């Protein structure tokens, strides 16, 4: 084995350099990224000196180590050890390894803190912030393990010096080491995390009192002595014991983050050895190195580990068998390397083509079967694709969004494999020629010839590519936009791709063949350009014994822009022109799986003699001067011609658009409108018509009847005054509801009180479409039947009369005594939700029984935004249907009034006030908060009268209640349309909760430090949550991740009564309205500065955003107000017909905002709640999940 170890230098060096290159912008671990330490964190400090041992640190949470599970105390030494039992005095300084006691050694060496030469800090920490930080480190190293520690031991050796002995080494003068060991334990397992910051290890050897010489430090674990009668050395693992491997501790990693090393040290799997993490720096490597490359791995003498021979490996999770002998692993020998032997299978999530099969009979194998031998380190690229593509002559685009792209690159072959999933079959075959969509990834990792650089070496993986594809003989173009965002936390390159435009139609079942080609890339500061003209062959399915094939030509132009490093002198030596050579091009569309696949091999180097590009033809090098709407046609030598693209005319140097609509007025046919576009035109059917399969506009009634009543596209009066009656086919009639008169399209209220329908001893009150009756004073009854006698007084009326009578102020003509509080009752005798003291000016909220709601009392001159929990009495008269009236297409504002939800269509940002209609009648509810699900087109609301949370489809149907248990006063509600969760505030229970969209899997996120929580919104793409708390003593706006972590105050100063809150996904702006300061304000959560949008608001309650506007509901004016954010001005106001208080408002978008989070696909892999966080997700269990098979993990 040692022979193999001695021969791995060059391969190892290349692998490590590539790892460090792909480790991302984070680089080495900084000192600030260590776990918090020092006296301010509650740390104990080890006595200064040489060979010191701390008193026992008693642990509240037991530590597990090797096969032990009951370690309740540890000892910390100066010399880089955490001991699980007290070290004997004779072993206080480093000597033979393994020691007789259990030891965790992040840097075992003779260290010295005499006379202030550094300090050693230690503590046990149970705080959520530290346990969560430890859990995240372990999760990176062991992503398949769900681990949440309850106890964390943090030991920090801060700027400690080497012991130098009698003859001091001048080279070590002033050298200091800083490192950290963290032991994290749960009820079932323990993990060790070693952290080595950049420049933290300034020396790797110390003077040995035993050897009387400089010896290297050691990174190791030891079980100590085992056995009852006959003691012997237990299991131990030496991880690093030479200068070179010690020096690499801060530069490399086994957990994917430089300087951070993670080990499983205590669980059923560690009885015979510690288990190392198996995650590379940005690469899932799987590479094996040839024996002849092992010559420079450090020679580790077998005598150092106390055994004659052992396998060169570290136990891994899931390994079978026992490891009863210690193992050695150099940090320069990656944790994923395997001992020589047959290649092993690695799991992959998509398929790759096998090139040894003929192109005419494409076959694929699953990547699970691909063996990663010595062919080079693979790199993964993940991203999303969206497209809006016109195929052939179709006037209707094929649209797809949120489609997954996965790519896999074999590094030293420069071969890229790209798979794009769920591509509609209507466009899949027609996208086969677009191999360069994945080819850009091939350029990124093309094999570099000496003196030339591939895309990653130049851009670092962060750039924007825009390509324009012109298909000769076909109108229109295809534009490809790709954004590369660098390496993510999983070591994968991320990419977003957008396709828009026209492609020629390729028949179903066809195959496409692309010959090898070359392409010239021209480099200047921060910009790379290229253009090429090439061919592809389409072979159609065999018909009548023949398979027709056709050769087509297309031209590619692309521009790549990136942020250049001004300090990178190597870029100056980069050739201005490089040639990309592409061969072994493979393209395939799998109709059954709807997966599009591209594979290409790429190399980058000089312009080759004999290649077409060697002639430096202007068409190839981009100096042709053709119009941007022309194609360059290369000729002999350096000759070329310019041809205007189809849809343009001119000499090629100058091309002008052809207005097909003007020159061919009938080009679109009847019942259609022609719209001219650059290079093409588009036909749109007039209202009442749509495209048939033949591409002509036909009347809608010719295809199928439409129920205008069900679709809401009728012209009857609003549902409160008229009903639409479907009469079959596409016909309907309009009829006024009882209480209204007219033709059904315009209905007027009938005054039922003329003549009165009430009892003679009752008053009649006319209402729209109905009327109410109320017995006169001295009579009681329902108004339709009245008998002598007083109506029974309510609690509020009794209290009011009692106070006034006792004070002798029952006569309204007499003044009230000063200092007297008299409750206010509404017209129905209920307590008004806001009560004020006439003398002091203080105001507060009360419940339905008149009791003050804690935390709502405001100072004089400010009225709290109190909510009535009592639904108004239902009017006598015709009943109103409670089913949802379907919404017409487009974007709408939805707003709540007591007992109903209305919709207000938007045209651009303009409110179409004449088309406002009721969406839902719920006369027994007090609806407060609203949220909209743009995926399923559902509206969600909170109701404080029952209380409950409900929802209804905008397509129509009956509303449903999804939550009615364990609610106090649910007010604000928000929705994560990507993770499919709802969040709400409860101002009575003072908490914030989350649940799935159907109301199941509830979990309390916060129930502390909340007084009057109200508005709540989500940033679904970034995984953030925001909410307001109008606590009269300390109003604030807070934020956290959706999983409840990283909670913090965002805004606290200069707030009064922050009510409404909205987050605009398009501008990433958080805006709110404040009824105390009477202002609307906005900020970007990533920046502390806030902007006052508008002052002088009346009494704003809720707010939403769309386009350039904010829309808020106002309690004083009972209206919806539009505010233009650009000019900070109110631009329009809508007053509903029913002048009662307005509550929540939200925007019902016609389509969802772009973007995705880690819960978008397959619930993020979670068994229950998937809660998004920035760049990740957390799997959480619902509350009260006893007996439920739920797994929590990050």
Description:
The protein is mostly beta strands. It is 7% helix and 39% strand. It has twelve helices and 78 strands. An eleven-stranded mixed beta barrel has the order 21-22-23-33-32-29-30-31-25-26-27. A hairpin with a 5-residue loop joins strand 34 and strand 35. LDL-receptor class B repeats lie at residues 937-979, 980-1022, 1023-1067. Disulfide bonds join 836-843. Its main location: secreted.
What are the SSEs and their pairings?
Layout: H1 2-5, H2 9-21, E1 44-45, E2 57-65, E3 68-76, E4 82-83, E5 103-108, E6 111-112, E7 119-125, H3 128-141, E8 151-162, E9 177-185, E10 190-195, E11 205-208, E12 213-216, E13 218-222, E14 225-226, E15 232-233, E16 236-240, H4 243-247, E17 260-266, E18 275-276, E19 351-353, E20 364-366, E21 378-391, E22 398-410, E23 415-420, H5 425-428, H6 436-444, E24 447-448, H7 455-459, E25 462-471, E26 477-487, E27 493-503, E28 511-513, E29 517-524, E30 527-539, E31 549-562, E32 577-590, E33 595-605, H8 618-621, E34 630-634, E35 640-644, E36 648-650, E37 655-657, H9 660-663, E38 672-677, E39 680-685, E40 689-691, E41 697-699, H10 700-703, H11 708-711, E42 722-728, E43 731-736, E44 740-742, E45 747-749, E46 762-767, E47 770-775, E48 779-781, E49 786-788, H12 795-806, E50 834-836, E51 843-845, E52 891-897, E53 900-907, E54 910-911, E55 917-921, E56 927-933, E57 938-943, E58 948-953, E59 960-963, E60 970-976, E61 981-986, E62 991-996, E63 1003-1006, E64 1013-1019, E65 1024-1029, E66 1036-1041, E67 1048-1051, E68 1058-1064, ...
